[in-house]
Amino acid sequence: xxxxxxxxxxxxxxxxxxxxxxxxxxxxxxxxxxxxxxxxxxxxxxxxxxxxxxxxxxxxxxxxxxxxxxxxxxxxxxxxxxxxxxxxxxxxxxxxxxxxxxxxxxxxxxxxxxxxxxxxxxxxxxxxxxxxxxxxxxxxxxxxxxxxxxxxxxxxxxxxxxxxxxxxxxxxxxxxxxxxxxxxxxxxxxxxxxxxxxxxxxxxxxxxxxxxxxxxxxxxxxxxxxxxxxxxxxxxxxxxxxxxxxxxxxxxxxxxxxxxxxxxxxxxxxxxxxxxxxxxxxxxxxxxxx
Length: 290
What we know:
This protein is an alpha/beta fold. It folds into 2 domains: about 5-165, NAD(P)-binding Rossmann-like Domain (Rossmann fold, 3-Layer(aba) Sandwich), CATH 3.40.50; about 175-290, N-(1-d-carboxylethyl)-l-norvaline Dehydrogenase, domain 2, CATH 1.10.1040. The protein is built from 14 helices and 9 strands. The protein has helices at about 10-20, 40, 50-55, 70-75, 85, 100-115, 125-135, 145-155, 170-195, 200-210, 215-225, 235-255, 260-270, 285-290, and strands at about 5, 25-30, 45, 60-65, 95, 120, 125, 135-140, 160-165. Strands 1, 2, 3, 4, 5, 6, 7, 8 and 9 form a 9-stranded mixed beta sheet that branches. The longest helix has 29 residues, at about 170-195. The mean pLDDT is about 95.
């Protein structure tokens, strides 16, 4: 596998493309706003003028876009595009790394089968730092033989690359990941709010807490950002809300009660003007109240 079409050059996609280039892959890129691709083109990627061009003649096509509607558009097309499914050559591996609905991953997989394509759903975790450092966690659903064929490519972007099962399994695993993050991040915010309410130095207190059993990635990384009043997005609130809604809706399909998930989702929805901030902006719930 040598040539890769990569669609979606945002916070995550840009760093992922650079790591694929470093690993020796020939990468072709497309994103709706061409200027967002300037950095990766300067690093050696080749610009394509459309989704269709980016998909044609490639060994694999990777997508990491914003929302389910965006995923639907790039795979199934619109008035300006045929979409990946109709444009990619038979035998191409098409890999959606967006966090989206498991049912949508199954839909793409079934359409891919009809057109002789090999589809995988492979959402990631690790944020911008994981993308930059090539240490993403990648959760993969689809046929295991297709996963095996793409493993070298995945390992250029991540250090934890695990096959989860049939189509949609990667997305279900990512939903569970986002549920766990919601709890860890809310716990970190509540701990900081409690410390501040009692007049303690939260930075000093967290030095103790993060070296014990209560530590988490959210506490170490987003906790530090909160203390610095740094709300820059390693992962956007608007995307996290989308992810939590997906998890909540799929839980409701099985009448599964997940009160922590739904409470954190409600807290985000009640905040105003934070959509383009990092997920650590959840702390504003307590700053707003006080």
